[in-house]
Amino acid sequence: MKLIRHGEPGKEKTGIVLDGTNYDTSAFGQDHDEAFFGGDGTARLAQFVAQNKGKLPVVPAGTRLGAPLVRPSKIVCIGLNYADHARETGATPPPEPVIFMKATTALCGPNDDIIIPKNSKKTDWEVELAVIIGKKASYVTEEKALEHVAGYCLHNDVSEREFQIERSGTWDKGKGCDTFAPLGPWIVTPDEAGDIDAMRLWLTVNGKKMQDGTTANFIFRIPFLISYVSQFMTLLPGDVISTGTPAGVAMGMNPQVYLKAGDVVELGIDGLGTSRQNVKAYKHAQD
Fold first, then answer.
1. How many CB atoms lie within 10 A of CB 221?
2. What distance lies between CA 207 and its chain's CA centroid?
3. What is the pLDDT of residues 107-134, one digit of tens each?
C-alpha cells in the first residue's frame, strides 16, 4: 500500500494510492499516527479498502499532500552513512552510526516550500530514504529489526550547515528548523517497497543533477540501524529513522553554492515517489 495524507496544513485527511489515483480513506476513522501504526493499522486499513472497493472518494487532482504521517514521537537521523558523502565533507567514515535528532516541528508536506531560516547563510539539501517504525522497538536484534518496519518514505533532510557545524553545539541546531523535513509523497509498505538495499536516490536543484546515488552504498544497512538506534532509545510506532544521504550536497562542493530564494529542489527514490520544494526567504510575518 501507499499511504498519503491530503488537504490544507493542519486539516489533512488520510488517503491511499491505488493504480496511480489518490483516494480518500478518512471514513476509516484513524489518522496515520502512533496508535494507527502500533495497532496493526496498515492491515486493518487494507481490509477497509477491500471492503469499500469502488466506493472510496477520489481526491481531487491538485490537492495538496501533507506529510504521510502525523505527530511522530521523534525523527532520528543517521549522519555520514555513505562513504562518498563522508569523503566530500572531509569526514572519516564512522566506525559506528552517527545519530542526531530532527525536530518534529520541521515536518512538512513533500511539495511544501522550504523556508530559509532567519540569519541563514548555508541552507543545504540531502535526499534520504526514511524508515517508518510500525512496532515498538527496544533492544531489538538485527535479525528481527525489519519486523518493526511499517514502511519506507522519501525525505529531504534539509540542513543549515553554519548552524550545524559552526555554532558550538550539536548537529541538531542545523537540522530542526521549520520546513526542514519534507516527507513523502507517501509511505510505501514493505511488501511493495522493493529491494531497500538497491534503491536509486537522486536530487536536482533548478534542474541540475546534484545527487545520484544508491542505497547499495550504505555503510550501515537498515536492519543494523534499527537495532543500533534501539540500544539507545525506544522506537515507537510512527517514529522516523532517516538513513543518510549520498554525495552531492552543497557543503561538499568547491565552491560551495547553497540554496537561495527562488531555487527549486526536486528529488526522488525508486519506488517511493518524487517531491518538489520551492525555496523561499524567511519573512518576519512567520514569527
1. 16
2. 21
3. 999 999 999 999 999 999 999 999 999 9
How far, in Å, CA of 67 to CA of 153, rounded? Answer: 10
How far from chain centre, in Å, is Cα 152? 8
CB of 134 closer than 8 Å to CB of 150: yes
Tell me the pTM: 0.96
Q: What residue type is assigned to position 53 of the chain?
A: K
* Residue 193, all three cell numbers: 517497497
Give dist(CA 225, CA 44) in Å, integer.
Answer: 28
Cell 534539509, residue located = 158
Cα pseudo-dihedral 230, 236, 242, 243, rounded to 10: 30
Distance CA(262)–CA(206), nearest Å, equals 9
Contact 6, 65 (CB under 8 A): yes
> Could you give the CA distance from residue 107 to residue 242 in angstroms, rounded to a whole number?
13
